[in-house]
Amino acid sequence: MAEVNGKIRIKDIAELAGVSKGTVDRVLHNRGEVSRASREKVEKVLEEINYHPNIHASALASKKRYNFHCILPDHETADYWAYLEMGIEKQVEELLDLNVNVVIHYYNQYDVDSCRQVYASIPDLKPDGVLMSPLFKDSSNAFAAKLKELNIPFVFVDSQVEGVEPLAYFGMHSYQSGHLAAKLLVGDQYDIKDIVMFHAKRKGETGANQTIQRKAGFMAYIKENNPDCRIHSVGLYWNDRDKNDIIMDQFFRENPGIKNSVIFNSRVYMVADYFKKSAMKDMTVLGYDLVDRNVKCLKNGAVSYLIAQRPEIQGYRALKALAQHLIYKQEVKPVNYMPIDILTAENIDFYVNFPSI
């Protein structure tokens, strides 16, 4: 049998089945009218030769242009979201020959109105697929419903929204990570009676979706294992260090004995820097995400624990899921939890030097 590059040709299958090349093509791609007898002949040959279609070649041959739109919080270089975007860009490189156009839209992660404006602009762009981080729960829920109505597949990264079923989710189990955070911070130390929980002040909705879920897991552990522990909530402005210094100065003047703190996002370095500058020793500090400034604080002892979730893998695999679904017509696993990695000064060097994608 004649083969090209080790692959069986449509012509060969047609000859074996005793049908036309057009019939084989219609069976392989499930399009057009084919009689039952002809279909059975073709399928019998395909089974006998253990035929596997070259999906990538089929995608290359397609003339369809795909438009994927990614919606992310605006960020600085080496920030958490920058790493997630790096993963997206890595997957973009792999899609270059498949006629895929990828556009990234940014919004102010501390202003729900900014997020809503971006969401409102997307339907008119007629995307084939959307990648998004549902940072603002209610607004993201409404946008997801709109995408469902328009039959536009979407994937979530970083956090999930209860009751919404995206094509796929890539990120850590936020509730369980919060539960783990409390276990690391408190463990079985029943003498810990106060913890300060720092959070970002945001305009509009009360908090980031993933922060709400992490906090819920954290509080569940505390309630079960140390119900007498008091949780103090302190809001900070992540772009105004002077104002934050005033807020924290006042809080610790009024609560001088607190030695344990948690921050459910990647800005833990801001709190750690304050502690270091204020010469506040013996503070146990837990935060999230492997950004450069957090790593520096972990190494110098200002941060005790970091919980990491490989955002670059999230971005890479999330965009890949859209391609698998729309271009390759493959099934996509709906829930894809990232490992919940616990990082300390002792293991950080081994972690950051390990390849991620």
Which labels suit this protein?
single chain, 357 residues, alpha/beta, Rossmann fold, 3 domains, six-stranded mixed beta sheet, 14 strands
What does this structure look like?
- This protein is an alpha/beta fold and 357 residues long.
- It has 14 helices and 14 strands.
- The strands form three sheets. A six-stranded parallel β-sheet has the order 4-3-5-6-7-13, sandwiched between helices.
- Helix 5 runs parallel beside helix 13.
- The chain is elongated, with a radius of gyration of 26 Å.
Assign the CATH topology of the largest domain. Answer: Rossmann fold
Order of helices and strands: EEHHHHEHEHEHEEHEHEHEHEHEHEEH
In the CATH hierarchy, the architecture of the largest domain is 3-Layer(aba) Sandwich
Main β-sheet, spatial strand arrangement: 4-3-5-6-7-13
Unreliable segments of 5+ consecutive residues: 1-6
Please tell me the total number of domains. 3
Nearest-integer average pLDDT: 89
How far apart are the first and last residues' alpha carbons, in Å? 40 Å
Summarize the structure.
With 357 residues, the protein is an alpha/beta fold. It has helices at 10-17, 21-29, 36-48, 55-61, 80-94, 112-121, 137-149, 174-185, 209-225, 241-254, 268-277, 292-299, 311-326, 348-352; strands at residues 3-4, 7-8, 66-73, 100-107, 129-132, 154-157, 168-171, 194-200, 230-236, 260-263, 284-288, 305-308, 335-337, 341-343. Residues 1-6 have low confidence and may be disordered.
